[in-house]
Specification:
The chain is mostly helical and 168 residues long. It has helices at residues 2-5, 32-45, 52-56, 101-116, 144-151, and strands spanning 62-65, 68-71, 92-94. It has one domain (2-157): Phospholipase A2 domain (Phospholipase A2). Disulfide bonds join 20-37, 36-115, 43-108, 94-106. It holds the Pfam family Phospholip_A2_1. Its EC number is 3.1.1.4.
Length: 168
């Protein structure tokens, strides 16, 4: 979805701030991008999925990007790259075949991508003050859950991780 609507991979948000692919963080979001991740996490928590395993193991769901059909699988997804200015972004739609948990996961993922579209693509990762101890491994060693949630991509996109922002 991110490639469709934003023109870049979700991988760049992995480990960003206090809420992007970090479990059980209760901290104030660092900026708008981090707020998008918080909203996404809360969306997952409030979904109709019966347990956390369902939420994080990716029920395959169907979606369209300006009429082209896609289906999300655990890690591999057919995806085309669209790069366009914000006013001409392709439209994401969760298809009607999604019901229950699938529908909710699709809508949560769609909402976070649309939220990210409000902000410029980050040039570096902001780090949550409560996670500074693990900053050195972000981008190198990813928990399986984080990979499934945020990467949702093929191997060629795993190099899209950002460096940690330097303090000024």
């Amino acid at each position: 979805m991110a490639k469709c609507h934003l023109g870049h991979s979700m991988a760049i948000y992995n480990g960003y701030g206090c809420w992007c692919a970090v479990d059980e963080v209760i901290a104030k979001p660092l900026d708008g991008i981090d707020e998008c991740c918080k909203i996404h996490e809360k969306c997952y928590q409030n979904s109709s999925c019966k347990n956390m395993l369902q939420k994080y193991m990716f029920y395959p769901y169907n979606w369209t990007c300006d009429g082209l059909n896609y289906k999300v699988y655990e890690i591999v997804r057919q995806d085309k790259v669209y790069v366009s200015p914000p006013e001409n972004r392709p439209t994401i739609k969760c298809t009607s075949v999604n019901v229950g948990c699938k529908r909710d996961m699709c809508n949560c993922d769609k909402a976070v991508v649309e939220c990210f579209a409000k902000y410029a693509k980050p040039e570096c990762k902001k780090v949550c003050p409560t996670t500074k101890k693990v900053v050195k491994i972000v981008g190198k060693i990813q928990r399986k859950v984080s990979e499934l949630i945020w990467l949702q991509i093929g191997k060629e996109e795993q190099t899209d991780n950002l460096e940690v922002c330097e303090k000024k």
